[in-house]
From TrEMBL:
This is Fimbrillin family protein. CDD domains: BF2867_like_C, BF2867_like_N. Pfam families: Mfa_like_1. It comes from the Bacteria. Transmembrane segments: none annotated.
Amino acid sequence: MKHKIVVTALTALATIGITFVSCSKDNEGYEERDARLSISVNTAEMPKTKALIEETTLPEGSKIGVSLKNLDGGDYDDGQYNNIEWTASGTGGSQTWISTSDILLSATKGKAYAYYPYNSSVTSMDAVPVTTSSQVDYMYAKPTAGICYGENTAQLTMNHALAAVRLSIRKGNYTGECNVTSISVKSNAVATDATLNAETGKLSNISGKNTAISLPQNFAAGNTARNVDVIVVPSGESSKITFTLTIDNKEYDCEEAPITLQKGNIYCYTLTINDSSLSVSGVAIDNWNYTNTGDMFIDLGWRVSVKGETSGIAFSNTVSDGTLIMKAVPVEYGRRIAKVSTAGDAEIKQSVDKVTGVLTIEVVNLKSNVTLTFNGFDSWQDITEDGIYYVAENGSIVFSASTSCIGIVLVANGHKFMIEKNEDKNKSYTAAGTDKISSSYFYWGEYDTDQSDIPNYTNAHSSSGWGYIPDEDGNYGGDPKIPGDLSTWVGNYALADWEGKANSEVLKKVTSGGGSNTSNATIGQVLNTFLASSDAKGYEEWYIPSCGQLALMYRNMNKINTALADIGGQMLASDIYWASSEDSSKKGWYVNFNGGVMGSYDKNNGYRVRFIRDL
């Protein structure tokens, strides 16, 4: 006998933090210090989430695989530190980790990768086999760069590689014994096997779509909801999901509306078993209730109405003593919900968690009906907090890295701009360098010609014709020192130039090196070629950074490079980059990203260039 079920879904996410720390041992000329890598679990408070492993530490006895590579992806110091087994001992803050072999650290900086659970057959971190037959919560860690004996602590966050379906089952007015003996999930949105790239989190070789994932059960459903979790491989397709439950030796069937599952999400469905059918009474877990569209009404004596752009948002409402606490959660990880517009007579407080993107609204002291109008998700104009953000393929802001991202955004000291994902790896750079000696190094252009529409600056800062900019830790590469405080970057000198966009409009017309200087393309030529290519991702506003903008990039170089690596982009080189600022008819300004020297040099010299755009 088959019965139809209508169900409601929500998603949530979880991460686990792991810290890598090195201690010391003399080995092959290393300094007399502990140069072995050890790991410990980060017990700092994490966002509350729904996942099959829901703690901030992995269970005792858990085994993970760890690899250490050079920043360019090669073997670390030519060592084979690939898939080293580590085992957790203890739990919580007292948890320690034991490895089967040491990972020795040197002055060379590297990247650490990890995945869970450990598999001795893994030979490469980009090819970890996963299967739902084991119902294991596979995880991977985003790489952390800069590990060495001098910088020997790295924070890794374990991310869920698969998706899960959680069925919350309870007995309604059903009069039978209500013994549940089997549950299965089947859909083209769901697969059984895949290969995990633990370096990026990407799934490939997905197989077993529309194959039932069946779990034997042996429990009697009661008035209290019983949760059953089914781990699945998200196929990336949008498709209906069929659930089949065997209750008292009878099959109960339902077909849920089409959905595209995302890794790291758990999709929760509440099922009530009645005499005539299975029915939905709302999502029982933490009172979550997911809505795609439409209005929501909450009765507090006065009515609170929820309207607006609610697609992709899950809601949790708690009502007590005339007070409403509403939590709005982004279904898609990495987004942040914008604050709502309000109407009505009440005290309304709003706060947004910068990490999870959850918007919390408190409504108290109602004296009339209240309307909360949702405005969707934060746009770039709403982002003011210093930090690194990511740009999705559609140009929207996201708060988590993905190889599909088209660039990153630096927000620092009141300035905000997007940095292109790649540099001379772009085909447009290669095209600009055709028949030239380099597709990486370019002239500023038109040596011995003053560009009258670009101001001339003879000093870098104050009375200094050149100097060293501090890195993000405040360290200087030498003297003279230029203050790192941007409030001093004002006046008639190069560091006060923030007009990269206006400068670049002039440089687009500078397409020769000047005189006999023909060996390299100019930075204006590269920009023109870039803008005319698919490398520009459809945006026309890219430009060459000015001295102020380029110096700000150097001051945040490590954060920028970590973010670029996370999205599979090309990191800023420890090399010299041209700014669009001009010194004189013969010289243009530059910043050396290897030590922080800022100065001016002949325009017919070949340096690098990296494009940015305003948001």
